[in-house]
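Sample intake sheet
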Amino acid sequence: MLLSCLQTSNSPSDRSRILLTLGNAAAFTVNQDLIREFEGIPIIAGFLSDPEAEARVQTLNALNNLCMNLPNQEQIKVYVPQVLELIEVSPVNSDLQLGALRLLTNLSVTDKHQHLLKKSITLLLSILVVSNETLQVQALKVLVNLSSNPDMMDDIVQAQVRAPASVILLIDARTSPAVLRRLLLFVGNLKAWRPSAQVADELRRKQDCLFRVMLDESSQFHSRLVQVLSHPDGEIQAQVARILA
């Protein structure tokens, strides 16, 4: 009934309320299966392009809950390009960006669909520079997920960093501990990657690629890590020590 109403409604506020209801229902496993069986996932995902921002937000939230179900992910993965586009075109720090990042976080928990995010690294890094703490944390959750997969590392280290100096400046005692802990976890995953001398030389020739910004010995990143070695947060201290070691 809800899916039928959603398809026939001409009221933006009604569409948002129906999507909210479906999203709440999708918090339960039995409903995640039912919505898929009723072919509800493509119906809901169709509202990613709804003219009303609130409807798009509720669509993302519903897909996020549906994404907790592995069979559902097989259908939701086809909308990744549209979700990434929403992040790029939506206002900075908006609920749309947050909803999209939460969906990508759930979709990237396992390595099965991480390859779909290969071209998103530059976008995720740029969010760290321009967004508030909530979005920074969410973007870093995706980056940590991706960097936990060795098969993704070649794409990650080659990614272009749009504002390298700003990313480096996040390694600072004044950065929110919630952001800094996840950023260091991401860096620790990167440090575990061991390129050959030939690959490292090739990456050094790529202007502003992630390797040059965060991993190359000539980067300012190392000296900034040393500065936060005395951070009052014990977990941050331990993460820095592991990276430097």
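Comment: Residues 122-244 form a domain with the Leucine-rich Repeat Variant fold (CATH 1.25.10.10). The CA atoms of residues 4 and 43 lie 9 Å apart.
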